[in-house]
């Protein structure tokens, strides 16, 4: 239908004129839109046109009456034409100019506001408002001073009450005897009291918004600090758990992972050990809490073992009985549990036998007792005809080396070993030259070495550092 109408209009003269006018109108609209006419159309579309719109005079009177009520706008001049308000004159600063333009734009019937205001920036006009504001703030502080003093008094009273409760030593000793836990609880009470006093004081002052800001900022800061001191916090928490669990006592011989020594003390940061070489060793509590702990002092009875090899042609059961008989004769070997022996392995030229026995560490030194047991078993085996084989090496000689050996042998037996020398060697091997029997071996000094233990006791008596080990608490 549209194409048919277009063709009919184009066939007569009138239609041609109408068609030409339509093209001209479309072309002019496009050019007008490119020149910014579209923006103007959009701007004017927001202006309502009604019969009861205020007149220019009414708008002028309304704006002038508003400016007359404000002293800083005394120098402003206003002109209104077709709803467009032109504001001129002078003000002291940019803030006053922006406020004047904003007030004019809010009046009903105003289409737009033109800024013709001059920023004078005189000294009196800029300083006087600050002085007035300072005077007003000072008067406000004077009026709020009693309330501020009341809030300060409440804050001090609550904080002081928390401090007194935290220092009530008798109460906390009844709750727990752990000094580390007492210190933690008292510190928490002090912090809670300060926060509670601050909250109550801010509520009295009506500064709830400030209180929320402070608490939010404290939470963010606390989270950041927590990430920064993560390892320190882990060590601190481990100290709390160790003080509760009590995994060892003072002066006990322990092995913590690869660290060995006697326990001097447990502090809030580390476990202090005295190594068997007499050196101080501090192990962080975070490591101790997660470590595998071996305690040699908890059970006084301790088992030792050692291996001896006999010739493959010897009877291993007879060798086991001979070695056990020698070990049982030692006074420091416990009768119960009794010593035992097992065949550990059969080698190419020997049989390995493992001997084991028990000693009381409170009466005997473990290493000394084990050494004497090894010596007694070895001498007993040798004296009863058992051979403790030595390493065997197979040597291969070429013809030249064999000829050299024959030449040396032809010179005479001057370099051969005499029977007397061989006998003396056997005597030294059996230990007869020392004239120490099995009974005398048991009488040697096997008392525990208390040197390190005495050093630890001396360290504990002189130290002023808090020790978290409590002998009255149950041990884990």
Number of helices: 16
Helix and strand sequence? HHHEEHEEHHHHHEEEEHEEHEEHHHHH
What portion of the residues fall into strands of 2 or more residues?
15-25%
Radius of gyration: 52 Å
Q: Please, how many domains?
A: 4
Q: Mind summarizing the main beta sheet?
A: 5 strands, antiparallel
* Mean of pLDDT: 78
Strand order of the largest sheet: 8-7-6-5-9
Query: Looking at the structure, what is the overall shape?
Result: elongated
CATH fold type of the largest domain: Alpha-Beta Plaits
Please provide the count of β strands. Answer: 12
- The CATH architecture assignment of the largest domain turns out to be 2-Layer Sandwich
Report how far the terminal alpha carbons are from each other.
101 Å
Q: What is the CATH level 1 assignment of the largest domain?
A: Alpha Beta
Low-confidence stretches: 1-46, 431-439
Helix and strand composition category: alpha+beta
Helix content: 40-55%
Describe the overall structure.
This protein is an alpha+beta fold and about 475 residues long. It has helices at about 1-10, 15-45, 55-70, 95-105, 125-165, 170-175, 180-205, 210-230, 230-245, 285-290, 315-330, 365-385, 400-410, 420-430, 440, 450-460, and strands at about 75-80, 85-90, 110-115, 120, 255, 260-265, 270-275, 280-285, 295, 300-310, 340-345, 350-360. A hairpin with a 5-residue loop joins strand 7 and strand 8. It is built from 16 helices and 12 strands. The longest helix is centred in the N-terminal third of the chain and has 44 residues, at about 125-165. It folds into 4 domains: about 55-120, Histidine-containing Protein, Chain: A (2-Layer Sandwich), CATH 3.30.1340.30; about 145-230; about 250-295 and about 455-460, SH3 type barrels; about 300-410 and about 425-440, Alpha-Beta Plaits, CATH 3.30.70.
């Amino acid at each position: 239908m549209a194409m048919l109408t277009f063709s009919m209009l184009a066939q007569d003269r009138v239609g041609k004129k109408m068609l030409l006018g339509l093209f001209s109108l479309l072309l002019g609209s496009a050019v007008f839109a490119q020149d910014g006419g579209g923006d103007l159309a959009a701007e004017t579309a927001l202006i309502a046109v009604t019969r009861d719109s205020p007149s220019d005079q009414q708008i002028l009177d309304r704006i002038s009456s508003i400016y007359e009520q404000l002293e800083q706008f005394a120098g402003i001049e206003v002109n209104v034409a077709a709803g467009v308000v032109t504001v001129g004159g002078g003000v002291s600063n940019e803030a006053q100019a922006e406020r004047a333009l904003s007030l004019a734009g809010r009046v009903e019937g105003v289409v737009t506001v033109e800024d013709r205001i001059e920023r004078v920036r005189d000294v009196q006009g800029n300083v006087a408002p600050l002085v007035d504001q300072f005077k007003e703030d000072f008067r406000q502080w004077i009026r709020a001073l009693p309330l501020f003093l009341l809030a300060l008094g409440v804050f001090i009273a609550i904080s002081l009450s928390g401090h007194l409760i935290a220092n009530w030593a008798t109460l906390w000793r009844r709750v727990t005897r752990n000094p580390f836990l007492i210190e933690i609880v008292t510190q928490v009470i002090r912090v809670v009291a300060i926060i509670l006093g601050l909250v109550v004081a801010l509520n009295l002052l009506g500064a709830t918004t400030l209180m929320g800001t402070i608490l939010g900022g404290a939470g963010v800061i606390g989270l950041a600090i927590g990430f920064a001191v993560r390892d320190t916090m882990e060590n601190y928490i481990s100290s709390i758990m160790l003080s509760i669990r009590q995994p060892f006592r003072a002066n006990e011989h322990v092995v913590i992972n690869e660290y060995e020594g006697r326990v001097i003390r447990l502090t809030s940061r580390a476990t202090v050990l005295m190594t068997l070489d007499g050196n101080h060793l501090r192990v962080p509590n975070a490591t101790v809490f997660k470590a595998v702990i071996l305690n040699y002092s908890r059970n006084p009875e301790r088992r030792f073992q050692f291996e001896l090899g006999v010739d493959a042609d010897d009877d291993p059961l007879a060798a086991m009985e001979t070695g056990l008989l020698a070990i049982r004769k030692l006074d420091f070997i416990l009768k119960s549990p009794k010593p035992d022996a097992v065949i550990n392995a059969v080698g190419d030229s020997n049989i390995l036998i493992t001997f084991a026995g028990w000693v009381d560490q409170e009466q005997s030194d473990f290493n000394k007792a084990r050494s004497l047991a090894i010596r007694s078993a070895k001498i007993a085996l040798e004296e009863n005809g058992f051979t403790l084989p030595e390493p065997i090496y197979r040597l291969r000689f070429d013809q030249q080396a064999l000829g050299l050996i024959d030449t040396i042998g032809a010179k005479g037996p001057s370099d051969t070993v005499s029977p007397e020398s061989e006998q003396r060697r056997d005597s030294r091997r059996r230990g007869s030259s020392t004239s120490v029997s099995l009974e005398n071996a048991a009488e040697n000094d096997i008392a525990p070495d208390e040197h390190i233990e005495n050093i630890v006791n001396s360290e504990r008596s002189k130290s002023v550092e808090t020790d978290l080990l409590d002998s009255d608490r149950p041990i884990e």
